[in-house]
Amino acid sequence: MLMKIRTTVSATAMLVLTVFFLSSCLFQNPDGGERTGIGYNKGYAPDQPIAFSHELHVGTHKIQCQYCHNQVERSKSSNIPSLATCMNCHQQVAGKPGEEAVAGHKNTDEIKKLRDAYNDGKSIEWVRVHMLPDHVQFNHQAHVTKGVSCQTCHGEIEKMPKVTQYSDLSMGWCVNCHRQPENKASLNCTTCHQ
Ligand code: HEC
Ligand code: HEC
Ligand code: HEC
Ligand code: HEC
Ligand code: HEC
Predict the structure, then answer these.
(1) Which residues contact 87 (CB under 8 A, 6 or more apart)?
(2) Side-chain half-sphere CA neighbours of 135 within 13 A
(3) Tens digits of residue pLDDT in 145-174
(4) Which of 168, 167, 169, 164 lies closest to 53, judged by CA?
(5) How far away, in angstroms, is 78 Cα from ligand 3 center?
(6) Closest residue (by CA) to atom 34 of ligand 5?
(7) Does residue 104 surpass a pLDDT of 70?
(8) The pTM is what?
(9) Are 63 and 57 in contact (CB under 8 A)?
(10) Going by C-beta distance under 8 Å and a sequence separation of 6 or more, which residues neighbour residue 188?
């Protein structure tokens, strides 16, 4: 009985996916122009409300990824740190008023934005860089605990003053890595699609 339900469910899922696939072929850009929108945005690097630099925090000050993205090993998705995490340091690290911002040093205007938001109980509306379509299941924990490094998928974040999408996040990208014998990762459609 249970088996039957499961088969029906996955058959339905496949049908939906197939229809989706066919319809997306119909609407493909005839001159093969690069697709923008969800996923595929390799090189995407939007401006952020505060000029937060991974190069400065991770490269220069050697702060571990998990100090800020502390859910990455425990949950399906990673997380952007809350202001409270920033304020662990920026209660002290602030620069003096009137002090001029020099490359990589005490950009007081940016830190002031941070403190004002914190004092007003607001949060920062970070602009999302990576985004998979809703029909795809991705799981950070599964990858990080198998020893796939952040840089394999995100590139050298520690050298980025501004986060840039490094991989294209296409299905081919996922599947090519899953296919490597040493990874023993599943190629079943339902691993990544439900
Ligand atoms: C001091 C805190 C801090 C540390 C340390 C840090 N990050 Fe971040 N990270 C952030 C913040 C804040 C954002 C959101 C703003 C932005 O995109 O720059 C972010 C964004 C990101 C994004 C883009 C998220 C999206 O919107 O798609 C990735 C990927 C990322 N970090 C990876 C890493 C990796 C890998 C490391 C370690 C090499 C790391 N981060 C270390 C604070 C941190
Ligand atoms: C573990 C300590 C630590 C944490 C946590 C931390 N920072 Fe920083 N941050 C620093 C240090 C150190 C500097 C460099 C200050 C200097 O050069 O004197 C800095 C500098 C900055 C600057 C100035 C950049 C520039 O170009 O001058 C900004 C903006 C900033 N941080 C934002 C953030 C945000 C947003 C968060 C939270 C997501 C955060 N920081 C978390 C330690 C930290
Ligand atoms: C196997 C590839 C892979 C690895 C390894 C990986 N990521 Fe990601 N990361 C992704 C993908 C794909 C997304 C987009 C997820 C989505 O849109 O649902 C993402 C999104 C993010 C985001 C944005 C928030 C979110 O969860 O969507 C952050 C922050 C992030 N990753 C940080 C990290 C850090 C830190 C590490 C290392 C500890 C890491 N990632 C390792 C592929 C990876
Ligand atoms: C650099 C290699 C690599 C890339 C790129 C990659 N994966 Fe994986 N993936 C793995 C490995 C290794 C495992 C763990 C296999 C195992 O269970 O031992 C895994 C496991 C998974 C799992 C199983 C999670 C679980 O709970 O068992 C899912 C789902 C998944 N990947 C989705 C994706 C998606 C979606 C993408 C692309 C957006 C992607 N992966 C890109 C290497 C990769
Ligand atoms: C390792 C993860 C993974 C596996 C396994 C996987 N997919 Fe995907 N699939 C993705 C990702 C990521 C996307 C979104 C990016 C893209 O469209 O390339 C996607 C997109 C799709 C799309 C939408 C394409 C479009 O143009 O919008 C279809 C249809 C699809 N997959 C069908 C399948 C089928 C059928 C299987 C099994 C033979 C399968 N997928 C196995 C990760 C996976």
Answers:
(1) 114, 115, 118
(2) 12
(3) 999 999 999 999 999 999 999 999 999 999
(4) 164
(5) 6
(6) 189
(7) no
(8) 0.88
(9) yes
(10) none
